Amino acid sequence: MAHLHITSWVIAFVLVGLVTMFSRKGSEKAAKISHMILRLFYLLILYSGGSLFASYAEYGPLVIIKLLVGLWTIASMEMVAVKYKKKKPTGIWWAQLAIAGIIAIILGFGFLPAGILPA
């Protein structure tokens, strides 16, 4: 399940970039299609993350913090995509996405049992 989760959020990050790129170029149809695919990947991330959450429940508050940071990351991705398509300022949302993404990666790879970083 961890492979599905990691693959899903890597593709989601790429799709956020595609949505912003298509919106910048004025290709609204491609931006809309990319955004819908991004939303499908949110569901995959939530499904696989929920499964990982259930399997790591004995790790206590750290898993709950990781869950909340993951939700924050997804919300930031969605806000970047929506605000960019509406031609509204996205700077604060990009910053939140970067911060939440870095924290989620550090928690997921560094402190939870499937992690690869030294603790």
General description of the model:
- The two termini are 22 Å apart.
- It is elongated and about 45 Å long.
- The chain has helices spanning 2-25, 28-55, 61-85, 91-111.
- The longest helix has 28 residues, at 28-55.
- It is mainly alpha-helical.
- Helices cover 82% and strands 0% of the residues.
- The chain contains 4 helices and no strands.
Main attributes of the structure:
mainly alpha, 119 residues, 4 helices, 82% helix
Structural class: mainly alpha
Helices, by number, come to 4
- β-strand amount: under 5%
Number of DSSP-assigned strands:
0
Rg, alpha carbons: 15 Å
Q: What's the main sheet like? A: none
Compute the average pLDDT: 92
From N to C, what is the helix and strand string?
HHHH
The dominant shape is: elongated
Report the end-to-end length measured between terminal Cα atoms: 22 Å
Question: Percent of residues in helical segments?
Answer: over 70%
Low-pLDDT runs of 5+ residues are none
Topology diagram in text:
Blueprint lengths: L1 H24 L2 H28 L5 H25 L5 H21 L8
Helix pairs in contact: 1-2, 1-3, 2-3, 3-4
Offer a concise description of the structure.
This protein is mainly alpha-helical and about 120 residues long. The chain is built from four helices and no strands. It is elongated.
